[in-house]
């Protein structure tokens, strides 16, 4: 495994018009399913931890597990902390081996978001750790969400934010939502185009699960460099388990869950164009 930062793994995505998948995983089955897919398709990959996983895995344990399991693989891997809502969580995470962190203060007033993000970049930059932040608001963070009046990322504000914080990647709000959609989301691709034209750094799409394949392709074409995926992986694993639960034991169910994650990861890697980019 070639361990790299977020800045390194995304460096040529805008030029070559592909996106690196960010897969949020919380157990060995999901981790191996994703790594197997990346290895088979020669794709760089971002393996991410979310704060919501703390009941099954602590943040301090995550990088070590990824490094141990990933030792036999040869593709570039970024170990990422996703959606850290507090500086304190990032302080706990950075000594443990993460190569990238995301601070999410997008629900705070603009100047407060800048202040917190600057504090994170001041902590991480001397350690060689990349920093992602979010501007605008990707709604949801629940199991079921509906399209609503999203707070889209403003182009002028984003320009100021990037300059003042020195971040390596920016998560933008263009109409997606976390969780499972009740209807196909209505994206503002025009806003994405405006952001991509103004900003040189990689742009990140959160709340991607549930988009159509063509929506994904369009977002990547127009400037998205990183796409976060969790719900689709979890649903793929759940579907495979449900199909076999009456006939298989727990060990075999773990195996079919891994297979489901692998198949979904392969689909996303091909869809985002990162195949053979390792």
UniProtKB/TrEMBL annotation:
Residues that, per the record, bind dihydroxyacetone phosphate: 179, 207-209, 228-231
Cofactor: how and how many bound: Binds 2 Zn(2+) ions per subunit. One is catalytic and the other provides a structural contribution.
Domain of life from the UniProt record: Bacteria
Residues the entry annotates as binding Zn(2+) 1: 83, 178, 206
Cofactor(s) required, per the database record: Zn(2+)
GO biological process, one term: carbohydrate metabolic process
Pfam families xrefs: F_bP_aldolase
GO molecular-function terms, A-Z: tagatose-bisphosphate aldolase activity; zinc ion binding
UniProt keywords, alphabetically: Metal-binding, Zinc
One GO CC term, this protein: cytosol
NCBIfam families reported in the protein's UniProt record: cbbA
Protein name: Fructose-bisphosphate aldolase
């Amino acid at each position: 495994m070639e361990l790299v930062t977020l800045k390194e793994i995304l460096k040529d995505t805008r030029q070559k018009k592909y996106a690196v998948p960010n897969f949020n995983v919380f157990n060995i089955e999901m981790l191996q399913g994703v790594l197997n897919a990346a290895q088979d398709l020669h794709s760089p990959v971002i393996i991410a931890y979310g704060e919501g996983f703390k009941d099954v895995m602590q943040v301090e344990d995550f990088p070590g597990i990824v490094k141990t399991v990933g030792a036999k693989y040869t593709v570039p891997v970024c170990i990422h902390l996703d959606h850290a809502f507090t500086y304190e969580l990032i302080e706990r995470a950075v000594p443990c081996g993460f190569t990238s962190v995301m601070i999410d203060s997008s629900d705070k007033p603009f100047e407060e978001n800048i202040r917190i993000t600057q504090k994170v970049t001041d902590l991480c930059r001397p350690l060689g750790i990349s920093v992602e932040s979010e501007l605008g608001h990707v709604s949801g963070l629940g199991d079921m969400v509906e399209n609503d009046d999203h707070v889209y990322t403003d182009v002028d504000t984003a320009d100021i934010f990037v300059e003042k914080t020195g971040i390596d990647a920016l998560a933008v709000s263009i109409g997606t939502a976390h969780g499972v959609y009740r209807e196909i989301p209505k994206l503002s691709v025009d806003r994405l185009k405006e952001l991509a034209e103004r900003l040189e750094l990689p742009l990140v799409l959160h709340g991607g699960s549930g988009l159509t394949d063509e929506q994904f392709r369009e977002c990547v074409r127009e400037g998205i460099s990183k796409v976060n995926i969790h719900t689709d992986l979890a649903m793929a694993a759940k579907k495979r388990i449900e199909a076999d639960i009456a006939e298989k034991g727990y060990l075999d169910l773990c195996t079919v869950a891994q297979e489901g994650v692998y198949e979904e990861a392969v689909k996303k890697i091909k869809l985002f164009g990162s195949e053979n980019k390792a």
